[in-house]
């Protein structure tokens, strides 16, 4: 493979925007922290169209030159490192300023230009916890796993030791990649680490502007109470190593503050020894994150051969959530807010929205001749975010009343490794299980079909790409029309049968059975109440996998 061209800072162009170019962001407040306020960006500027962004507005002065260099960071990396880290960081990407338009970098060389904040990716929907017990959707932070299994089960989280090992391994890999680039996290705590159980599990670090970038800080370093290092110097490789050990101990203690190594030793003696070394008062004696990886992989391999150990499933979905001990998960992290992705494919045929039952858009007026779904090539490579929910053996259904029991004789990883589950739907992807993207795509569709079946139309619509012409997701009238059509639909027997790429889109072919009220069938047979569909969707990687549309050439059906 040819060596990649070395990218210099001067080769990376950072976008600059003003707050008045971001739409009515003040109406979409996501969180408020000590250093800034975070808002959702409803309408990014044209050159950022299709981005799923949040705006952090600073409360105090910052080192704008460091922030600008941070915005260049991902562009300086190899394609491999960039793809890995983009999927695990809500990294600063765009400078926000007031006053005189900057002539060029650095910001300090532009008198009259005041840097007031930055834009970053929004937290994807797969990192949200949807639980009736908690009310509104919340960022799915690691702090929720620092409670006993009974509490986790009641809020819809079923996470056994194997899943915990995989999440810890992903966090260790992320820290290792960051340290190799001279970036240290500093305020590493479970409040700032989101997680998804999709695929093998993945972590997402938020509040990235608080990280130390190559020895320099945008803001003064702070630490979360209960997660402080004993030495004076903060945001070092050694302080990150200390906090990784704390996370490991508390993750397996299922406790917010316990550092007993016994539970972790029950999983792996080597991991327990690494955690104990991590808490050494001598920073140089702490193991680097890379040192954890062989032991984590070995422990995970052993865990896969044992029955699942997730806590009991709730017997009553409406039961009251007990106060966890010793501390209930803290307030919603400042950056994370409702950040869903997009939904069902619907098409306008004359004035009638002809929806292909639960997810297929028969066609839309924006489809062009070169948007046909028949072309194929190699499978699309993974993009920066995954937009699916839990798949596989450990459902995290927010209601806690679907799926098989963790650890039961039909719910182990070996029993159903090729079915993605979400509340209200499952997607069989066994026909394409050898494709590395299959599980993630299937998880997105499970979430989509499940949302439609359960009447959670906001979640379904949020799984559309923002640029789709199938439905105007920003129009209340268009959304209401879509909901009216979809409200009679129930979809089942969903199978992901093919997955390939074509230009900028990933093509996913699904078959499913839809049942709907008379008058809401396909355009050619509106009176149908049951049809078997085969639909090839065009998916984008705008923010995880999202539905762009289903060109009419890729849609077929047969009455049941």
Describe what this molecule looks like in 3D.
The chain has 560 residues and is an alpha+beta fold. The chain folds into three domains: 9-121, Phosphorylase Kinase, domain 1 (2-Layer Sandwich), CATH 3.30.200; 126-303, Transferase(Phosphotransferase), domain 1 (Orthogonal Bundle); 346-559, Nuclear Transport Factor 2, Chain: A (Roll), CATH 3.10.450. 22% of the residues lie in helices and 20% in strands. It contains eleven helices and 22 strands. It has helices spanning 64-73, 79-86, 149-154, 161-180, 237-253, 262-267, 269-278, 289-303, 438-453, 457-461, 476-486; strands at 16-17, 29-32, 36-40, 53-58, 94-99, 113-121, 128-129, 138-139, 183-184, 193-196, 202-205, 212-213, 346-349, 352-356, 360-361, 419-422, 425-428, 490-502, 505-515, 530-540, 546-549, 555-559. The strands form six sheets. Strands 16, 17, 18, 19, 20, 21 and 22 form a seven-stranded mixed sheet that branches. A hairpin with a 3-residue loop joins β14 and β15. The longest helix is centred in the first third of the chain and has 20 residues, at 161-180. It is globular, with a radius of gyration of 24 Å. Mean pLDDT is 78; it is low at 1-5 and 309-416.
């Amino acid at each position: 493979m040819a060596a990649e061209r070395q990218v210099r800072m001067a080769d990376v162009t950072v976008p600059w925007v003003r707050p008045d170019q971001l739409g009515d962001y003040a109406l979409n407040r996501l969180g408020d922290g000590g250093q800034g306020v975070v808002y959702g960006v409803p309408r990014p500027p044209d050159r950022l169209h299709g981005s799923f962004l949040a705006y952090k507005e600073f409360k105090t002065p910052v080192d704008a030159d460091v922030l600008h260099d941070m915005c260049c960071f991902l562009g300086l990396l190899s394609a491999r490192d960039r793809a890995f880290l983009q999927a695990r960081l809500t990294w600063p990407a765009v400078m926000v300023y007031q006053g005189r338009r900057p002539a060029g970098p650095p910001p300090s060389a532009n008198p009259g230009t005041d840097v007031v904040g930055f834009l970053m990716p929004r937290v994807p929907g797969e990192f949200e916890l949807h639980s009736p017990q908690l009310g509104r959707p919340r960022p799915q932070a690691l702090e929720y796993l620092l409670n006993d299994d009974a509490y986790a089960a009641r809020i819809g989280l079923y996470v056994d030791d194997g899943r915990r090992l995989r999440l810890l391994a992903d966090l260790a890999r992320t820290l290792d990649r960051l340290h190799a680039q001279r970036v240290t996290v500093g305020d590493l705590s479970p409040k700032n680490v989101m997680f998804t159980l999709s695929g093998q599990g993945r972590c997402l670090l938020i509040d990235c502007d608080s990280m130390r970038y190559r020895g320099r800080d945008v803001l003064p370093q702070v630490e979360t109470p209960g997660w402080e290092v004993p030495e004076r110097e903060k945001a070092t490789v050694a302080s990150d190593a200390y906090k990784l050990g704390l996370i490991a101990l508390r993750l397996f203690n299922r406790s917010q503050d316990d550092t007993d190594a016994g539970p972790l030793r029950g999983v792996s003696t080597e991991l327990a020894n690494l955690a104990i070394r991590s808490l050494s008062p001598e920073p140089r004696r702490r193991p680097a994150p890379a040192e954890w990886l062989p032991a984590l992989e070995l422990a995970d391999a052993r865990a896969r051969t044992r029955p699942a150990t997730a806590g009991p499933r709730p017997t009553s979905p409406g039961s009251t959530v007990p106060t966890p001990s010793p501390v209930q998960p803290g307030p919603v992290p400042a950056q994370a807010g409702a950040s869903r992705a997009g939904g069902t494919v619907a098409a306008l045929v004359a004035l009638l929205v002809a929806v292909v039952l639960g997810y297929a858009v028969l066609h839309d007026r924006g489809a062009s001749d070169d948007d046909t779904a028949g072309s194929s090539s190699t499978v699309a490579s993974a993009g920066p975010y995954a937009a699916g929910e839990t798949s596989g053996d450990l459902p995290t259904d927010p209601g806690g009343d679907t799926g098989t029991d963790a650890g039961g004789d039909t719910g182990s990883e070996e029993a159903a490794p090729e079915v993605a589950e979400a509340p209200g739907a499952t997607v069989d992807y066994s026909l394409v299980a050898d494709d590395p993207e299959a599980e993630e795509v299937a998880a997105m569709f499970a979430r989509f079909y499940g949302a439609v079946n359960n009447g959670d139309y906001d979640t379904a619509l949020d799984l559309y790409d923002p640029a789709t012409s199938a439905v105007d997701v920003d129009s209340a009238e268009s959304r209401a029309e879509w909901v009216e059509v979809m409200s009679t639909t129930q979809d089942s027997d969903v199978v992901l049968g093919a997955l390939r790429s074509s230009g900028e889109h990933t093509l996913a072919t699904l078959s499913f059975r839809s049942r709907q009220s008379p008058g809401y069938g396909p355009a050619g047979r509106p009176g149908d109440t049951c049809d078997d569909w085969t639909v090839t969707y065009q998916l984008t990687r705008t923010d995880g996998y999202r539905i762009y549309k289903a060109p009419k050439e890729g849609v077929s059906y047969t009455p049941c």
